[in-house]
Design brief:
This protein is an all-alpha fold. It has 13 helices and two strands. Strands 1-2 form a two-stranded antiparallel sheet. A hairpin with a 3-residue loop joins β1 and β2. The radius of gyration is 26 Å and the shape is globular.
């Protein structure tokens, strides 16, 4: 567990970034998807190995959604058109929600990056004490992050030119929260550069700008800002008071205590009469 996030941002991400930065479209059409699929298989081998780190339930469920969206996009047809369209009626709404929340690309490099980034950092964050203590709290955190990202990205001036996709920004949201929870940790980027946890999200953002451009990376910046704002709000809130027992349980405890006292008093009285 201690090195799950470090492994999540090492050599496979470096290979994917090199492919994504290639200017040759013909090479990208062949090498990019193949490299992405190989790195996705490497991630699968990593999580099912004998010494593999545990993947949280919420994290695993979201990665399955990402895989479903990628497979649907490869198969094409009406489902793919609805997933990447703007329709919000009937069954098309369900496909559109899947595309908005989980689509990255067609089992290519971006899909593999999503597996490694989200899978590594989210699994550690999900097992953090703040989120693991209460059931479904981490799922609510991801839902809140997705809602914040969607609402902020919807205000972008070029919003109507492309479908709203928040899968990659959600990974940046998770990485930023992990960095805030593990400020003294170090993570290895590209298999060569070791940086502190606080700098890791910004280094990944710089890599995103270099590969995809500033305009395409703006949702990732928005996700980092949303994570920092949410973390500051959580830090400012006082801890919840301890749970108060119900009146029935309190009465039952009092009755049990009273019975114990009465039994002890009766035993003491009997012992006194026996002595007499």
């Amino acid at each position: 567990q201690a090195h799950a996030a470090t492994a999540a941002a090492s050599t496979p991400l470096a290979a994917l970034a090199a492919v994504a930065a290639s200017p040759a479209d013909a090479q990208m059409s062949t090498v990019g998807p193949l490299t992405g699929q190989l790195c996705a298989l490497a991630f699968l081998a990593r999580i099912i190995g004998p010494s593999s780190p545990a993947v949280g339930r919420v994290t695993g469920a979201y990665l399955l959604l990402c895989t479903l969206a990628a497979v649907v996009s490869v198969t094409g047809g009406t489902a793919r058109a609805q997933m990447l369209g703007e329709s919000t009626t009937g069954a098309a709404l369900l496909w559109r929600l899947l595309g908005a929340l989980a689509y990255t690309d067609e089992l290519g490099a971006r899909f593999a990056v999503q597996l490694w980034l989200f899978g590594g950092f989210s699994s550690e964050l999900e097992q953090d004490g703040r989120w693991a203590a209460v059931p479904h709290r981490y799922a609510a955190l991801l839902a809140l992050g997705a809602a914040l990202i969607c609402s902020l990205c919807a205000a972008l001036p070029w919003r109507g030119e492309q479908p709203l996709l928040v899968a990659q920004p959600l990974a940046f949201f998770v990485v930023s929260l992990w960095a805030r929870a593990e400020p003294k940790r170090r993570v290895q980027l590209g298999g060569a550069v070791s940086v502190g946890a606080a700098a890791a999200p910004w280094c990944l953002l710089a890599l995103s700008v270099a590969v995809a451009g500033s305009r395409a990376s703006l949702p990732n910046l928005i996700a980092l800002g949303a994570a920092l704002a949410l973390d500051a709000a959580l830090a400012a809130c006082p801890p919840p008071p301890p749970a108060v027992r119900s009146s029935a349980s309190a009465l039952a405890a009092a009755a049990a205590a009273g019975g114990g006292v009465a039994a002890a008093a009766g035993g003491a009285g009997a012992g006194h009469r026996g002595a007499e």
